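ok, trying the design again with the full structure, not the truncated one.
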């Protein structure tokens, strides 16, 4: 690795974060263009959700600080295939910390005393397994190396005892994805029909795949096991229910793992007479309706009681997006609720799903909302146990209220994960 070190250090020294950018945007966020282009956040600025951390680490002031009295080894626990990535670090007097990126490592020790303030690193991994760090100023590649088959496809950071390393704006964009919906017809897709099927799948003049009514199941003719999937979703109503299934059983209805679609969460409502209600809140033209819910821990359970509230009855409304109803958009349905509901109805949102062995992760608008490892015994059906085999994807029509649109459905195979 020493022959690569001097080139990498040169790269780092010419990529300080420009002063003009400081304060220009909130750290650890994505622009609408970045979301549309497929970028996701590896660190949300609030927690270490989705990370494996061994050693001291804390999140404070929208940064992640690694290190302390013990050695620290940390990084996202999702692995990717071909991708672009970037991150910013502040080294201070750090002398021995290492950044381990997809199979190779280098040290910051030669930078002690040379760097002050935030520094930016950018890099990419090609589909052929070639990694390169690029200088954003001059467009030159200062470091490149070939990956071994078992090298991790993500970032790792190692900080020895007594040192610290501060990180922010860790972003990654999976690349090499290919479309599986042509925007013209349903070529490459096949409806699974049962006696009670009612869904209607069509392609709109705008080139969107629309599903109305339910139940229904539209499967791909292609099959995947380890993959990264990206698609845009639009819910044409309030709290509509649908899902993206994967590793399905070909020709079998609603099989496979399900990445839930349901933009619904718990809301506290205080009325002018002091009454306090909790439930699913839906604004209307002259007020709102509230489906009363009960809460047990993180489980939100709707009741049959629905209140109609006039506008002048409502004093205060407090939303709790961290308490999703029916698991919430981005959840691994029946396995792990979404950490919070990021998306809204009647607004396009982007979902990224990564399946790598028994580890499943989902991002909504670039924010990670689920991070699930399936430890169940193996079964042919993911609804009953761990399924690692290839299977189709499918789009769900849930019930008579279903009315959702999909576009920009892209997928890439990932290097096969070792069996757990």
């Amino acid at each position: 690795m020493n022959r690569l070190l001097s080139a990498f250090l040169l790269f780092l020294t010419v990529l300080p974060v420009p002063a003009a950018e400081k304060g220009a945007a909130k750290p650890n966020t994505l622009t609408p263009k970045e979301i549309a282009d497929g970028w996701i956040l590896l660190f949300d600025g609030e927690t270490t959700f989705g990370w494996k951390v061994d050693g001291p680490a804390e999140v404070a002031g929208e940064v992640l600080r690694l290190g302390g009295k013990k050695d620290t080894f940390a990084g996202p626990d999702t692995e990717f295939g071909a991708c672009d990535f970037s991150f910013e670090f502040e080294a201070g007097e750090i002398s021995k910390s290492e950044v381990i990126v997809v199979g190779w490592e280098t040290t910051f020790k030669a930078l002690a005393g040379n760097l002050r303030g935030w520094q930016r690193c950018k890099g990419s991994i090609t589909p052929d397994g070639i990694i390169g760090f690029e200088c954003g100023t001059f467009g030159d590649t200062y470091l490149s190396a070939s990956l071994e088959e078992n090298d991790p496809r993500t970032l790792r950071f190692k900080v020895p005892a007594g040192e610290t390393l501060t990180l922010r704006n860790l972003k990654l964009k999976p690349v090499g994805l290919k479309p599986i919906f042509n925007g013209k017809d349903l070529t490459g897709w096949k409806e699974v029909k049962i006696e009670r099927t009612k869904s209607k799948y069509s392609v709109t003049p705008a080139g969107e795949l629309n599903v109305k009514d339910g139940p229904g199941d539209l499967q791909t003719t292609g099959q995947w096991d380890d993959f990264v999937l990206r698609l845009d979703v639009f819910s044409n109503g309030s709290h509509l229910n649908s899902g993206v299934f994967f590793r399905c059983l070909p020709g079998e209805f609603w099989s496979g793992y399900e990445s839930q679609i349901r933009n619904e969460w718990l809301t506290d409502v205080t009325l002018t007479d002091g009454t306090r209600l909790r439930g699913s809140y839906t604004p209307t033209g002259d007020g709102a309706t509230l489906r009363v819910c009960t809460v047990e821990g993180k489980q939100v359970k709707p009741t049959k009681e629905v209140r109609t509230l006039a506008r002048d009855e409502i004093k205060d409304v407090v939303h709790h997006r961290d308490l999703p109803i029916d698991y919430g958009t981005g959840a691994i349905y029946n396995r792990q609720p979404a950490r919070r509901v990021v998306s809204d109805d009647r607004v396009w949102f982007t979902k990224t799903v990564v399946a790598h062995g028994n580890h499943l992760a989902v991002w909504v608008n670039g924010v990670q909302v689920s991070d699930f490892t399936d430890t169940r015994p193996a079964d042919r059906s993911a609804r009953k146990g761990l399924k690692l085999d290839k299977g189709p994807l499918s789009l769900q029509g849930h019930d008579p209220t279903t009315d959702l649109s999909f576009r920009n459905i892209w997928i890439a195979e990932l290097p096969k994960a070792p069996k757990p």
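Keeping the full-length input from now on. The longest strand covers residues 299-310.
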